[in-house]
Amino acid sequence: MHGVWGNRWTFILAATGSAVGLGNIWKFPYITGENGGGAFVLVYLVCIALVGIPVMMAEVLIGRRGRMSPINSMRYVTREAGLHGAWTAIGWMGVVAGLMIMAFYSVVAGWALNYVLLAATGQLSSLSGAAAGELFGGFLGDTNRLLVFHSLFSLLTFAVVAAGVTRGLGMVARILMPFLFAVLLVLLVYGVVEGNFSAAFGFLFDFKFDKLSMSGVLVALGHAFFTLSLGMGAIMAYGAYMPEHANVSRTIITVGVLDTAVALIAGLAIFPVVFANPGMEPGSGPGLMFVSLPVAFGSMPAGEIFATLFFLLVAVAAWSSAVSLIEPGAAWLVETGKLKRAPATFLLTLVAWCGGVGCVLSNNWLGDNPDGLHIFESLDFLTSQIMLPLGGLFIAIFVGWLMRRAIVVSEMDAEEHPLFDIWLFIVRFVSPALVAVVMIASLYDKLV
Ligand code: PFF
Ligand code: NA
Fold it and tell me: Is 300 part of any domain?
């Protein structure tokens, strides 16, 4: 019933396509800015290494074992382990989380599409910091424009998922990802030459722990899940398409390292501009990238071309991620046999689209309207800081404690290897403990 990726590389490309997206280029820099920099980055990196990558392996191997949508893969491995069907809830929660993320994700991707248009028509040339801020603020007030680009992005995502992801994605990842990487490097060089690079570097890598609160630690942990597309079945769904023999651990480490590299380079490209412009603030929130980078492009040779290319590539990266937000639900609906792929995808995209309209209309991106509904903030908080970490926690417990060791070994394609035991130890003890402690501690912090 399922297609299979051609080889290990196709899986790496698809998983990287899912992982690398707005989370790296838009979200990582602004939440780093909001949470004081260095210490936040360090905690984030520790979470990637001790929770993200190990749990990603666990999630992929459930998908490989079940070879179906996350809901049915969970059902399969649960039955195989002789357990209660309640574990299937991991799959259900994932489908819901995917739609909730897609709601605001497609709105922000729409911002990027709008900036493609602005760049291509010369409206980003030689902007001052203040003018860039005004441009962005004005755009957020333009409901119609926001809705048009949100809808356009939703439609593009629908098209790929409806066609079936094994077909749609290979080329995107293979050709456009390297391009995105290259343009980020251009921005990085610009930051070194023209921006305040040393201030940016210090901000990102001086570990000032007094600046990091307990809720900041939860933001970092949650972002480790978000950025790796983890804890909601996206990577599980892709694992289901993975070929029979492929070394899971090496593959996943590659994806994790690429994703982390893109985030760090985005930070090193954005903050030099922020620190070189007195009007800009690292903690200014979701607009950070859209206000700082146009200023950099505006004063760069061939800046209009680079700006157009950059925002286009960001939109494409968001696109290949968005596909994996819809895919778990779509795959499940198709498996029920009640709907074909296109109508199933349409239904799911429509639900997410409505949520996005809510985000646009509540118009509270910059938190400056205290009476607003804060739909964007709520969706982001519920998914990144609650649903994905919980999903990851249960996946780690399931694979670490409840799956038969022989099955885990064979699906990892690992044979017996000392590194395997280290991984299993992390998945059993370290990752669940870290997630549980951070979630409980920040809850406690909020209540007391
Ligand atoms: N990992 C994506 C990013 O960093 O932009 C976002 C994402 C995609 C999260 C798919 C979750 C997911 F299932
Ligand atoms: Na990411």
Answer: yes
**Domain total of the chain:** 1
**CA–CA separation, 329 and 195 (whole Å):** 44
Degrees (nearest 5) of the Cα angle 5, 411, 416?
130
pLDDT in tens, 361-396: 886 555 556 666 789 999 999 999 999 999 999 999
Q: What is the pTM of this model?
A: 0.96
Asked if residue 435 is part of any domain, the answer here is: yes
Give this complex's ipTM.
0.99
Domain that holds residue 210: 8-447
Alpha-carbon torsion, ordered 80, 84, 85, 91, to 10 deg: -80
Question: Which ligand 1 atom sits closest to the C-alpha of 28?
Answer: 4
Classify residue 148: in a domain, yes or no.
Answer: yes
| Ligand 1 neighbours (beta carbon < 6 A) | 18-19, 21-24, 98, 101, 226-227, 229, 232, 234, 321, 324-325
Atom of ligand 1 nearest to the CA of 21: 5
Has residue 366 been placed in a domain? yes
Cβ contacts of 432 within 8 Å, gap of 6 or more: 393, 396, 397, 400
Residue 59: give its domain's CATH number.
1.20.1740
pLDDT range class, residue 1, cuts 50, 70, 90: very low
